[in-house]
């Protein structure tokens, strides 16, 4: 019972941290602000997350769980290109989460950032998963002649790059439509 309550409280803290980071950015988010949102002192919050970095990683892991339906990172064989398009549509309905992820990703490229290792490992895994998705869809060669391993970083870059463009100009960038257009490029000309 105590363990379940502790996990529930950790979840509340992570959700509050997502909100605070979305509002203020990682650097502007303080443990004190997060603690206040959930009715704890900063010392009380440190009982659940001993450092700001530990909380940050929990926020990033939670975002990935949301994207994979609550489990661990999705197995490569569960994704298909049409499901990736659905994920892009889903992201377009939750700008706060996309903003949090994008801000943390952008900040993580600096030396010593606490999320750098998380994103480095995440992108290695995502590229591998995207290569598997592309291989399942096209075999060993895409219509362009690229291998799935060559196209996987491009697919990943388009997904994340569209998020940045959409966040900056949501009225000008239709993220789901642009991603579907990219899938058309991947699939090549219709055979007829």
UniProtKB/TrEMBL annotation:
InterPro entries: BetI_C (IPR039538), Homeodomain-like_sf (IPR009057), HTH-type_TetR-like_transc_reg (IPR050109), HTH_TetR (IPR001647), Tet_transcr_reg_TetR-rel_C_sf (IPR036271). Residues 30-49 bind DNA. It comes from the Bacteria. SUPFAM superfamilies: Homeodomain-like (SSF46689), Tetracyclin repressor-like, C-terminal domain (SSF48498). Residues 7-67 form the HTH tetR-type domain. Keywords: DNA-binding, Repressor, Transcription, Transcription regulation. PANTHER family: HTH-TYPE TRANSCRIPTIONAL REGULATOR BETI (PTHR30055:SF234), HTH-TYPE TRANSCRIPTIONAL REGULATOR RUTR (PTHR30055). This is TetR family transcriptional regulator. It comes from Streptomyces virginiae.
């Amino acid at each position: 019972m105590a363990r379940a309550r502790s996990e529930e409280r950790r979840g509340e803290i992570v959700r509050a941290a997502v909100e605070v980071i979305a509002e203020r950015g990682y650097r502007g988010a303080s443990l004190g602000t997060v603690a206040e949102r959930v009715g704890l002192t900063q010392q009380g919050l440190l009982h659940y997350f001993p450092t700001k970095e530990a909380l940050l990683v929990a926020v990033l892991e939670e975002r990935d769980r949301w994207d994979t339906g609550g489990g661990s990172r999705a197995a490569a064989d569960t994704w298909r290109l049409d499901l990736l398009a659905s994920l892009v549509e889903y992201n377009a309905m939750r700008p706060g989460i996309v903003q949090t992820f994008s801000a943390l990703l952008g900040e993580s490229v600096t030396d010593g950032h606490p999320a750098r290792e998380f994103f480095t490992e995440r992108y290695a895994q995502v590229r591998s998963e995207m290569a598997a998705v592309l291989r399942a869809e096209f075999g060993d060669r895409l219509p362009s002649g690229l291998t799935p391993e060559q196209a996987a970083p491009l697919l990943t870059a388009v997904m994340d790059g569209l998020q940045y463009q959409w966040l900056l100009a949501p009225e000008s960038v239709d993220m789901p439509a642009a991603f579907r257009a990219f899938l058309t490029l991947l699939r090549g000309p219709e055979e007829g």
